[in-house]
Amino acid sequence: MDQLDALKSKYLSAVSDAADEATLEELRVTAVGKKGEISLKMRELGKMTPEERQVAGPALNALKEEINSALSAKKSALADAALDERLKTEWLDVSMAGRPRRQGTIHPISQVTEEIVAIFASLGFAVAEGPQIENDYYNFDALNIAPEHPARQEHDTFYMHRDENDDRAPNVLRTHTSPVQIRHLEKHGAPCRIICPGRVYRADYDQTHTPMFHQYEGMCIDKDISMANLKWTLEEFCRAFFQVDDIELRFRASHFPFTEPSAEVDIRCSWAGGQLKIGEGNDWMEILGSGMVHPKVLAAGGVDTDIYQGFAFGMGIDRLAMLKYGIPDLRAFFDSDLRWLRNYGFASLDAPNLHGGISR
Ligand code: DAH
């Protein structure tokens, strides 16, 4: 037994003195490895009398276990110490200013969205949002687009999967931001003044169409709202957005299922010398669809149509960004090309706001 005690104190103190993992491993081999001192002692058990074995066996096992657990405790203590040491030498000051070359920029779509929100906020419009995966009712039915209505085909809709035995109409990726009108009216009722910027989806791809693009919807419902208010609001927006005082808009009669009457709106512009100038020249460019919200749409939103009426409009954000900042190809917005972003992007501290200015 004395022998075991001696072994125990020899190895335990060696373990506690070990300075690194290699020393620990050596110790493990010499003590409890296959040919280690303890293992050799265990082999001697066979030569003992049963009585001796009954005492020596458990004692040796206990010793082996004790040494093993001392080894692993020391091993993790050494690993912790090594990590502490690394953390001390490899620290990084994350509050340090980044190198300008690596700084991100604000995407033109984000910038223009902020500009739109800032302008409409000054006119008393709040921002409302809705889901991008929309159900058939909000995207179509509630907006007076019946199942057989040709507008459903025009929208090149992406349909979501439904199980075979599920006979509900499939959900869709919303094809426009108009469903937010219904969701907002259902929840908050009239009167209201909102804009709803967000992503929309249609199966289309060329220089001026991408399967995902951005729109914003505007809606103003109250007791005494007319097309005149719509016209003023849109002119005011265009003046602020394009930063041109002499804006001229042309309202062309059109048709949308969710408005009556409906109008498409063009803005006076010039393409002289291949450069777009808003507010002068003899060209007209279509920028949005609009109208007086259809009574059926108001009713779907739970609004009393004997009391309330109002206007709505929908505009493409990507298109506005292309026009304002002279970006020729819509697809570049979604290429994630850093060189493009550095050219067209905006400094992160230049976020538009009403007191700082809309665009800098
Ligand atoms: N939802 C239409 C589209 O995506 C745009 C639109 C037109 C919205 C007229 C309106 C509106 O609110 O009154 O093509």
- Structural class of the secondary elements? alpha+beta
Biggest sheet record: 8 strands, mixed
Distance between the termini: 87 Å
List the helices and strands in order: HHHHHEEHHEHEEHEEEEHEHH
Question: What's the number of helices?
Answer: 12
Could you list the spans in which at least 5 consecutive residues all have pLDDT below 50? none
| CATH architecture annotation name of the largest domain | 2-Layer Sandwich
- For the secondary structure, the number of strands is 10
Quaternary structure type? single chain
The tally of structural domains comes to 2
Strand content: 15-25%
What are its keywords?
two-stranded antiparallel sheet, 2 domains, BirA Bifunctional Protein, domain 2, alpha+beta, 360 residues, eight-stranded mixed sheet, binds 3,4-dihydroxyphenylalanine, elongated
Summarize the entry for a quick read:
This protein is α+β, with helices and mostly antiparallel strands and 360 residues long.
Helix and strand arrangement:
Layout: H1 2-17, H2 21-32, H3 37-43, H4 50-89, H5 108-122, E1 126-127, E2 133-134, H6 136-139, H7 151-154, E3 172-173, H8 179-188, E4 192-201, E5 212-222, H9 227-242, E6 249-256, E7 259-270, E8 277-278, E9 283-293, H10 295-300, E10 309-316, H11 317-325, H12 338-344
Parallel strand pairs: 1-4
Antiparallel strand pairs: 2-3, 4-5, 5-10, 6-7, 7-8, 7-9, 9-10
Helix pairs in contact: 1-4, 2-4, 3-4, 5-11
